[in-house]
């Protein structure tokens, strides 16, 4: 084992992206130290990518490249800072994005602490994003590969976190990364990409949540208030969801599939409608909680930019107005489908990620105005 303090620690996850990241740094002669983060301790035998397999693959990659390898258990940080929030949001009827919080609280916080303990000045990860360093200011830019750009998941990072970060894959396309892995004969060159909940892997979503959240059945209604069935709990559904409604035998005017339109907390009702283009699925405006801006402040009190309300969505032209509490009113040029409270809206100016915020409500039509909700109250014109 090397006794020289490493300049860079690379997060080695057991996947091809982080493996090529480590290989690129080593090829530059920088000799990084690799760390595998063990962040989930509960039984994940049903997952597609168990942590034990990933740790073994990460160790094999480090051995192949010839770099030091460490395992650090950050499961307490993940549970306290990410997973508890994930569950609380679901209990509140929202649909959180744990990958966003995971990056800020674990990969670029707890992991940074590990890197500093190892004497590192920088951390490197396999994210498809770029960093533009201009004096004391650091900007987050989209990755060159539009199909893999991951700046959406990094929008909560601040200047200090970005200043310490490196994204060696930012200029590469995924196909190039695969080619490099094959050329370097890395043992994970052909390993498929993992998906699912950050650090937990691929799990049947409802069954996974039911391990931690109790069922709270309630009425499943159409927009006219007709009861169609019983849902298992609002926490287990999301806006725009088609599958898992058990309404195959229900007949309606259009004969189209049923979709989740709204989760009404006031009476624990799940509102569903027919057709993937149902008007209640579309919104032109949304309101957020306090915005986070990577530079430290928004460009102006009101500004034009582009936004995404979900990962891999094409950029959408919009106007952003800041309120007196730091929240954002985002008005889109074109109506957006399935805007979901709890998810993040991320703002861009050309290739630069400005930051973003958690969606609180939107002005999609709600059909029962006699039952007041926070969302309908927020829909009034400013």
Describe the protein in words.
The chain is an alpha+beta fold. The chain folds into three domains: about 10-205, HUPs (Rossmann fold); about 215-275, Adenine nucleotide alpha hydrolases-like domains (SH3 type barrels, Roll); about 280-380, Elongation Factor Tu (Ef-tu), domain 3 (Beta Barrel). It contains eight helices and 18 strands. The strands form three sheets. It has a six-stranded antiparallel beta barrel. The chain has a five-stranded parallel beta sheet with strand order 3-2-1-4-7, with helices on both faces. The termini are far apart.
Quick rundown:
By secondary structure, the protein is an alpha+beta fold. The protein contains eight helices and 18 strands. It has helices at 16-27, 51-65, 75-91, 98-117, 159-163, 174-183, 205-209, 374-378, and strands at 8-11, 33-38, 69-73, 122-124, 129-134, 137-142, 165-166, 218-221, 227-231, 258-264, 269-274, 282-290, 292-293, 302-308, 316-322, 327-337, 344-349, 352-362.
Core attributes:
Rossmann fold, disordered C terminus, Elongation Factor Tu (Ef-tu), domain 3, 3 domains, alpha+beta, SH3 type barrels, five-stranded parallel beta sheet, 382 residues, single chain
Topology at a glance:
Blueprint: E1 8-11, H1 16-27, E2 33-38, H2 51-65, E3 69-73, H3 75-91, H4 98-117, E4 122-124, E5 129-134, E6 137-142, H5 159-163, E7 165-166, H6 174-183, H7 205-209, E8 218-221, E9 227-231, E10 258-264, E11 269-274, E12 282-290, E13 292-293, E14 302-308, E15 316-322, E16 327-337, E17 344-349, E18 352-362, H8 374-378
Parallel strand pairs: 1-2, 1-4, 2-3, 4-7, 8-11
Antiparallel strand pairs: 5-6, 6-18, 8-9, 10-11, 12-16, 12-18, 13-18, 14-15, 14-17, 15-16, 17-18
Helix pairs in contact: 1-2, 1-6, 3-4
């Amino acid at each position: 084992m090397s006794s020289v303090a490493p300049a860079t620690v690379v997060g080695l996850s057991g996947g091809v992206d982080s493996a090529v990241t480590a290989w690129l740094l080593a090829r530059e002669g920088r000799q990084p130290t690799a760390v595998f983060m063990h962040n989930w301790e509960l039984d994940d035998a049903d997952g597609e990518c168990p942590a034990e397999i990933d740790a073994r693959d990460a160790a094999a990659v480090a051995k192949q490249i010839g770099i030091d390898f460490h395992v650090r258990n950050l499961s307490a940080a993940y549970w306290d800072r990410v997973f508890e929030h994930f569950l609380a949001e679901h209990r509140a009827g929202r649909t959180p994005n744990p990958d966003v919080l995971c990056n800020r609280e674990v990969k670029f916080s707890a992991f940074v602490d590990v890197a500093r303990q190892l004497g590192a000045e920088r951390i490197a990860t396999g994210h498809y994003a770029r960093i533009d360093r201009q004096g004391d200011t650091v900007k987050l830019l989209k990755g060159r590969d539009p199909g893999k750009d991951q700046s959406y998941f990094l929008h909560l990072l601040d200047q200090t976190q970005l200043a310490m970060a490196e994204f060696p894959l930012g200029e590469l396309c995924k196909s190039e990364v695969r080619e490099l892995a094959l050329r370097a004969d890395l043992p994970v060159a052909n390993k498929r990409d993992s998906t699912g909940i950050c650090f937990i892997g691929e799990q049947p979503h409802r069954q996974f949540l039911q391990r931690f959240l109790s069922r709270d059945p309630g009425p499943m209604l159409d927009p006219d208030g007709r009861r169609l069935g019983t849902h298992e709990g609002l926490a287990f559904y999301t806006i725009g969801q088609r599958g898992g409604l058990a309404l195959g035998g229900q007949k309606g005017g259009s004969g189209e599939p049923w979709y989740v339109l709204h989760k009404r907390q006031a009476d624990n009702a799940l509102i569903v409608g027919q057709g993937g283009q149902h008007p209640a699925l579309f919104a032109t405006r949304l309101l957020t909680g306090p915005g986070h801006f990577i530079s430290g402040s928004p460009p102006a009190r009101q500004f034009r930019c582009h936004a995404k309300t979900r990962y891999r969505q094409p950029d959408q032209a919009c106007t952003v107005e800041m309120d007196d509490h730091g929240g954002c009113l985002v008005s889109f040029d074109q109506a957006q489908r399935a805007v979901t409270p709890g998810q993040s809206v991320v703002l861009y100016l050309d290739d630069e990620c400005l930051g973003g915020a958690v969606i609180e409500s939107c002005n999609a039509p709600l059909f029962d105005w006699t039952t007041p909700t926070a969302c309908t109250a927020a829909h009034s014109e400013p």
